[in-house]
Design brief:
- The chain is α/β, with parallel strands linked by helices.
- Among the domains are: 108 residues, GIY-YIG endonuclease (3-Layer(aba) Sandwich), CATH 3.40.1440.10; 112 residues, 2-Layer Sandwich (Nucleotidyltransferase, domain 5), CATH 3.30.420; 154 residues, UvrC, RNAse H endonuclease domain (Nucleotidyltransferase, domain 5, 2-Layer Sandwich), CATH 3.30.420; 58 residues, DNA polymerase, domain 1, CATH 1.10.150.
- The protein is 43% helix and 19% strand.
- The chain is built from 20 helices and 19 strands.
- The strands form four sheets. Strands 1, 13, 14, 15, 16, 17, 18 and 19 form an eight-stranded mixed beta sheet that branches.
- Helix 12 packs across helix 15.
- The structure holds iron/sulfur cluster.
- Iron/sulfur cluster binds next to helix 5 and helix 6.
- The site of iron/sulfur cluster (SF4) has 14 residues, from helix 5 and helix 6.
């Protein structure tokens, strides 16, 4: 039951990753997957043209992925989230950005020189050219991209030069030309190097290139078609044909382009998704034209109309965020958008535009956010369904009287009776609900008696329910064997706790006469009141995995609390023991020096600099820590 800090117990031998069982629920579309550990931290980000088959490859019994961390997944993996993208190339870019943002420990760190290529139009020349560059600089130039591959960047460059008549020569060539080059002969350049080309008309070409590369192709096609009609009306058929070819090229390119997010400097995209009564909002943060974060927020059962739901969500989302972009895209109009936009503008300190895009690239972005929100809900529902099946199986196997919707698990942590604490973790529908977790400082025990400590914890916990403050669990799980189970039953009887199932999970142990090899261990056993022999759940089964996960979570939570308690006590008690030092002076000293260690090493003069510490008190502190300083010096 109780876990001693100095001998932490880990028993992972019966683990199975339930994700294996729900791989078929992942979409077969392109996207990025984020592997999270059991604490929810992102440990790996990857991309795939087909998410489901890529994820399957991690779990293949043979011929699967051979990278080192794949062998660790069984122990590490808690969940996998996905972010859908329109194409595999887009997934590559999103993957790159998410790796940079989260820096997952199993991803190889990307170096700057591995960044993707960009296109640049400088502003230092009246007739600038379009060029491929690796780095974006703050030099006033316009940058486009990043492009998913070098070939894609160069292909875009070729195509742009073909239709928009920007010069391709270097500045030096431009300066020294006496005649136009071949580009002029094949009508791809108006030869501003030697001919009289007005900077304004060239600037118009630059503007069109910007529209094109910024992904505002729809707008550009409209513009080109208008100009084509004008040229035809004016009988300038050659110009009309050129404009027609440009419009066609832009249209074809729009269909091929993987990602052009460059014009969207800083913006957030919100898309609502629904599956039955359940709702989710997917948020993408784009900064400097790159997706920096993509996350789905599940809102549970929520029958509010989308406009109400999204309005409330956006408000909550920005409530404690310092980063508000200039532009916020929404999948639907919300209640009172003007007020919301004004409030966001106040937070940013300049105008924030709140938009519901109807077409173009921005529309596609909100559609993608909506698809992501729905996809996350589908995955969630599949997971919930499976969890309920597991809970049903647990109920059957352990002969529980109730469906274990709310399960609580308790653990004690102490070092030989000092600073004893207890933890209570809560799983609702088979998933941890951290908002329900509780910690207890054990009040009555200073001897290492886990039984009595657990008794106090459960007594205090169930009293809170009797007072009507906390929900009653359906099932209580404790770590231990028959003895612990009997003790908790006594507590239940004392407190008249009824209708709560109770089981204890006994760790696997070495079989008698064995040498300590894992193969020689007994299985984990579950003790149930009124059942003589322990129940042995199938190894690697989902119900056993759930119980072990509960126990380990309670253990982790208790240990963390215990360490913090001990640290705090150490920090405060040695100062508090000094005559003349109360909480005010103690905190002033710690604030001034930053740590107890530095207080101990300080001279009397240094100590007297602290507000509220007189020379006499400083001397007392200095004298008190003399032995600590001597120890420190002799180490
Ligand atoms: S025609 Fe002149 S300006 Fe155009 S690419 Fe050739 S050298 Fe450069």
């Amino acid at each position: 039951m109780g876990t001693n800090d100095s001998t932490p117990n880990e028993s992972n031998q019966t683990r199975e990753i339930p994700i294996r069982e729900r791989l078929s629920e992942y979409p077969t579309t392109p996207g990025v997957y984020l592997m999270k550990d059991k604490a929810g931290e992102i440990v790996y980000v990857g991309k795939a043209a087909n998410l489901r088959s890529r994820l399957r490859s991690y779990f293949a019994r043979s011929g699967g992925d051979e990278r080192f961390f794949v062998h660790l997944l069984d122990h590490v993996l808690g969940d996998i989230e996905v972010v859908l993208t329109r194409t595999a190339k887009e997934a590559l870019l999103v993957e790159n950005e998410l790796i940079k943002t989260h820096q997952p420990r199993f991803n190889i760190k990307l170096k700057d020189d591995k960044n993707f290529l960009n296109l640049r139009i400088g502003n230092e020349h009246p007739y600038p050219r379009l060029e491929v560059v690796r780095k974006r600089r703050k030099d006033g130039a316009k940058y486009f991209g990043p492009y998913a591959s070098a070939s894609m960047a160069r292909q875009t460059l070729r195509q742009t030069n073909r239709y928009f008549k920007l010069r391709t020569c270097r500045d030096n060539d431009f300066k020294n030309r006496s005649r136009p080059c071949l580009e002029y002969q094949i009508k791809r350049c108006d030869a501003p190097c030697v001919l009289d080309v007005s900077p304004e008309s060239y600037a118009e070409n630059v503007r069109q290139v910007s529209l094109f590369l910024d992904g505002r192709g729809d707008q550009l096609v409209d513009h080109l078609r208008e100009r084509m009609a004008d040229a035809a009306t004016n009988m300038d058929f050659e110009q009309a044909a050129t404009l027609r070819d440009q419009a066609k090229a832009v249209e074809a390119s729009l269909q091929r382009q993987a990602v052009v997010m460059n014009r969207m400097t800083d913006l957030d995209v919100f898309g609502v998704g629904r599956e039955g009564p359940y709702a989710a909002v997917h948020v993408q943060e784009v900064r400097g034209g790159r997706i920096k974060r993509a996350q789905a927020f599940k809102l549970g059962k929520n029958e509010a109309p989308n406009d109400v739901l999204l309005g409330q969500f956006v408000e909550q989302y920005y409530l404690d965020r310092t980063s508000v972009p200039k532009e916020v895209l929404l999948s639907t109009h919300t209640e009172d958008m003007t007020t919301l936009a004004d409030w966001l503008s106040d937070r940013l300190g300049s105008r924030v535009q709140l938009k519901v895009p109807q077409r173009g690239e921005r529309r596609r972005m909100v559609e993608l956010a909506e698809a992501n929100a729905s996809s996350s809900l589908k995955l969630d529902q599949g997971r919930q369904k499976r969890q309920r099946e597991v809970l049903g199986e647990l109920q059957r196997r352990l002969r529980l009287t109730k469906f274990p919707e709310r399960i609580e698990c308790f653990d004690i942590s102490n070092v030989q009776g000092t600073d004893p604490v207890a933890s209570m973790v809560v799983f609702i529908d088979g998933e941890p609900d951290k908002s329900e977790y509780r910690r207890f400082h054990i009040r009555t025990q200073s001897t290492p008696d886990d039984f009595l400590m657990m008794k106090e914890t459960l007594t205090r916990r169930f009293k809170r329910s009797l007072e009507g403050n906390w929900d009653i669990p359906d099932l209580v799980v404790i770590d231990g064997g028959k003895g612990q189970l009997r003790m908790v039953r006594e507590v239940f009887l004392d407190l008249n706790v009824r209708d709560v199932d109770l089981v204890s999970l006994a760790k696997s142990r070495l079989l008698e006469g064995q040498s300590g090899d894992d193969m020689d261990r007994s299985p984990e056993r579950v003790f149930v009141p009124g059942v003589k022999d322990p129940i042995v759940l199938r190894q690697n089964s989902a119900p056993l995995y759930l119980l072990a996960r509960l126990r380990d979570e309670a253990h982790r939570f208790a240990i963390t609390f215990h360490r913090n308690t001990r640290r705090k006590r150490r920090l405060t008690s040695s100062l508090d023991d000094i005559p003349g030092i109360g909480p005010g002076r103690r905190n002033a000293l710690l604030r001034h020096f930053g740590s107890l260690k530095k207080v101990k090493l300080a001279s009397a003069d240094e100590l007297s600099q602290v507000r509220g510490i007189s020379q006499a008190v400083a001397q007392t502190i200095f004298d008190t820590f003399e032995s600590d300083r001597t120890e420190n010096n002799t180490q």
